[in-house]
Amino acid sequence: MTNPTTTNTTVPHAPVTSATAAATVGVAELHHVSLSYPDGTDEQGRPRTVTALDSVSLTAARKQVTALMGESGSGKSSLLSVLATLITPSSGSVRLDGVEVTDLSEAQRARMRRERIGIIFQQPNLLTGLTAEEQLLVTDHVRGVRGRRLRARRDYAQELLDTVGLAGMGQRRVHQLSGGQRQRVNIARALMGQPTLLLADEPTSALDESRSHEIMALLAEVTARFELASVIVTHDRDLVDYTDAQVVLRDGAVSSTTAAGSAAGSSALV
Ligand SMILES: Nc1ncnc2c1ncn2[C@@H]1O[C@H](COP(=O)(O)OP(=O)(O)OP(=O)(O)O)[C@@H](O)[C@H]1O
């Protein structure tokens, strides 16, 4: 579980040193990642681009929650999409569990997403009509998992629903769940693939203050329990107590990184 009382030390954006590199065993490591999107054409008809990420370097370490912060348009969602292997950056290195993602084919990246990455979207995006338990097992059904394996997966879904505080609610359908409970289902669903990297894009934006704190506490708890590296986009400074490191983006670049004080616990040092 994250210790919100950890003393934090603000460190400037600087290249990785051998000391910090040795101290940070990163599940996700970005080095000088830049990303430009096509942005129409100029008056002469030449293609224009917009820079979303500008030489971003960061490490998300196991058992740590890293908050990704910054103003609207600063590049948070783009960075999360790069970490999710949904977008290949224009340049730079993206390593997940030591594998250079930018060298992989689309099929290999899709497999990596399935096997190593859990994604929690802003809105729960649950399928109406299905029970909470069924939401967690949809992918297994689509993949044709049957028999004993499906029973094991059902047991695991049950365990995860218990973990996220929904014991006994597995048979409830979406309309029978509150907003906070839906987000808990969403979190459990993201954990079904047993990821090493958990990504969340403003997971509390649709919730009130008290529910937001509960969801952040839960994300910190599952990060510790399942030894995940979690990266959470948030606008809410009140929620950073649940995180171990904070990376602030400005105009696509890292403007500051705050990490837990101890060398062994350091994360997101860039
Ligand atoms: N598909 C796209 N095509 C062109 N430009 C884009 C695209 N997606 C994002 N951008 C631009 O890239 C920059 C970074 O956008 P991004 O969505 O990553 O920021 P953000 O910090 O997540 O913003 P917000 O907090 O508003 O969601 C912005 O200038 C945005 O206009």
Q: Can you give a write-up of this model?
A:
- There is one protein chain.
- The chain has 270 residues and is an alpha/beta fold.
- The chain has a domain of 178 residues: P-loop containing nucleotide triphosphate hydrolases (Rossmann fold, 3-Layer(aba) Sandwich).
- The protein has a seven-stranded mixed β-sheet with strand order 1-11-10-4-9-8-7, with helices on both faces. The protein has a four-stranded antiparallel β-sheet with strand order 3-2-5-6.
- A hairpin with a 2-residue loop joins strand 5 and strand 6.
- Helix 4 packs parallel to helix 6, helix 5 packs across helix 6 and helix 6 packs parallel to helix 7.
- The relative contact order is 0.23.
- The structure holds adenosine-5'-triphosphate.
- The site of adenosine-5'-triphosphate has 12 residues, from strand 2, strand 3 and helix 2.
What is this structure, in a nutshell?
This is ATP-binding cassette domain-containing protein. The chain is of the alpha/beta class. It has helices at 18-23, 76-83, 106-116, 132-142, 147-163, 179-191, 209-225, and strands spanning 8-11, 26-41, 47-61, 64-70, 91-96, 99-100, 117-120, 197-201, 229-233, 245-250, 253-260.
H-E string: EHEEEHEEHEHHHEHEEE
Query: Unreliable stretches, pLDDT < 50, 5 or more residues?
Result: 1-24, 261-270
State which percent range the strand residues make up. 25-35%
CATH homology superfamily of the domain at 8-38 and 48-127 and 194-260: P-loop containing nucleotide triphosphate hydrolases
Distance between the termini: 24 Å
- Numbering strands along the chain, what is their spatial order in the largest sheet? 1-11-10-4-9-8-7
Radius of gyration from CA coordinates: 19 Å
* Main CATH class of the domain at 8-38 and 48-127 and 194-260: Alpha Beta
Number of strands: 11
Discrete helix count: 7
Question: In the CATH classification, which architecture of the domain at 8-38 and 48-127 and 194-260 applies?
Answer: 3-Layer(aba) Sandwich
Query: Quick check: average pLDDT?
Result: 88
| Gross geometry | globular
Q: Enumerate the distinct ligands.
A: adenosine-5'-triphosphate
Name the helicity range: 25-40%
Report the biggest beta sheet as strand number plus sense, adding barrel if it closes: 7 strands, mixed
User: Structural class, please?
Assistant: alpha/beta
Domain ABC transporter: 30-270
Pfam families: ABC_tran
Keywords: ATP-binding, Nucleotide-binding
GO molecular function: ATP binding
